[in-house]
Design goal:
Helices cover about 45% and strands about 15% of the residues. The protein is α/β, with parallel strands linked by helices. Strands 1, 2, 3, 4, 5, 6, 7, 8 and 9 form a nine-stranded mixed beta sheet that branches. The longest helix has about 45 residues.
Length: about 325
């Protein structure tokens, strides 16, 4: 078996997931005997019938059911652990492949070049139209990627047990942290349609902004991912550690947390952040002000853009004063 396509499924019923399955079933010029689909139901009542699954005549589909609800990351991991194809790609139940030539392009490339990590372009659906993301701009996304199974296993790259929401950030940054950049293959064609689904886990309606609601995971990501990168002696470990500290600081001091009922939560994490900076202060010393300021600028742009932040009440000078006591470093 060459390619496993692993699909986590929760609330997406047959009327939703059929679009993805049709987009795979309708692929041209591919040997379907070398492609296997594994759908992992994350302990929900939204089950898929045998009749429905068998209606996709080209597809070999295994339907699995989690014994507990784990979130999409561990659902994907269950699919990975129960398959054995040489390569793996992950699709979300409410998305689609880009067109009917997608898999022939992917299969031709991976069989010829056997990349550790194949990065393709993705089409991102927005309210005001679609956007094509290319190359490194797709790194924060799991979509449109193909992974060599051996590479993931040899480098202990797995979805983390305690990170339920920003699980894709942990997984993709783990890869970037261990892979030699020359071993990343880029294919300048779109292969995946990421579709805006208002009912999905990351876009469901909450009282506050989604990032505020899942801030425990956002904070734990900075700890768990740094530990992984440190264990692997990754060249990006200190850059990531500083960047993640700035990300936490900026979000806590943004309009996302500017609500009276969030004051206790905000103060809790500001105190945690003080302790974290104390532990990592030497990193700021080693990097020096110029490099630290560049990391801050990049993180500032990314945090604001990704989360629609309108205002941030503090800046880098405030961070120096509060956390580093304006000492030279």
């Amino acid at each position: 078996m060459i390619l496993d396509i692993i699909i986590p499924q929760y609330k997406e019923d047959e009327s939703v997931i059929k679009n993805l399955l049709n987009s795979i079933n309708d692929q041209k010029n591919v040997d379907f005997s070398q492609i296997k689909l594994t759908i992992v139901n994350d302990k929900s009542d939204c089950l898929l019938s045998d009749k429905f699954l068998k209606s996709f005549n080209n597809l070999d589909i295994t339907f699995m059911i989690n014994d507990r609800n784990t979130g999409p990351g561990l659902a994907r991991q269950k699919g990975f652990d129960n398959t054995n194809g040489l390569f793996v790609m992950f699709c979300d139940s409410d998305d689609e492949l880009y067109d009917s030539n997608t898999l022939s392009i992917i299969m031709d490339f991976i069989t010829k070049y056997e990349p550790d990590y194949l990065v393709t372009n993705i089409s991102v659906e927005r309210e005001n139209g679609n956007e094509i993301k290319k190359g490194k701009d797709t790194f924060p996304w799991m979509h449109g990627k193909v992974y060599k199974r051996e590479f993931l296993i040899n480098n202990d790259i797995r979805f983390h047990e305690r990170i339920r929401h920003v699980e894709d950030a942990y997984f993709t940054t783990s890869i970037i942290g261990v892979i030699d950049e020359k071993n990343i293959s880029f294919l300048d064609v779109p292969t995946y349609k990421w579709k805006a689904n208002k009912e999905s886990l990351t876009r469901a309606k909450y009282k506050h902004h989604y990032l505020v609601e899942i801030f425990d995971d956002f904070y734990n990501l900075s700890l768990d991912l740094y530990e992984f990168l440190k264990k692997k002696n990754s060249k990006i470990k200190m850059n990531y550690a500083i960047s993640s500290i700035f990300g936490i600081y900026l979000v806590l001091n943004s309009d996302l947390f500017d609500y009276p009922d969030l004051e206790e939560k905000k103060n809790l994490y500001l105190n945690k952040l003080h302790e974290l900076v104390k532990k990592r202060r030497n990193m700021f010393v080693i990097y020096g002000k110029d490099k630290v300021e560049k990391i801050y600028e990049i993180e500032f742009r990314e945090i604001v853009k990704r989360n629609g932040i309108k205002t941030i009440s503090k800046d880098l000078n405030d961070f120096y004063a509060e956390y580093l006591q304006n000492k030279e470093f």
